Amino acid sequence: MTENLPPCPECSSAYTYEMGALLVCPECGHEWSPASAEDAGSGADGGVIRDAVGNVLADGDTVTVVKTLKVKGSPSGIKAGTKVRNIRLVNGVDGHDIDCKIDGFGPMQLKSSVVKKA
């Protein structure tokens, strides 16, 4: 490998290779163009957190839970349709990137994949 190719934007694998005009990751199968890799490297979309339908989330947004979530120690859990106000975006553990306070449950962290912007 004499060339210095960027890592895969999906899985961060260092084993990318060129196939025609595309870059390919052998580990996850993701294909992308080198031009899009340069755009992503500039920080234009780095660190953006999106909800379950692709809307960009920001601190202070109100979101709605899209599926019923089990909560340890609670018999009912968080029901789908529950509104969560004034979220905070964080770098959490296991993909939990929303810090919030839910009425009846208290402070907790949620994954952005289980909420949508209200």
From TrEMBL:
Residues 5-33 form the Protein YjdM N-terminal domain. Residues 49-118 form the Protein YjdM C-terminal domain. Belongs to the YjdM family. PANTHER family: PROTEIN YJDM (PTHR30305:SF3), PROTEIN YJDM-RELATED (PTHR30305). NCBIfam families: phnA. This is Zinc ribbon domain-containing protein YjdM.
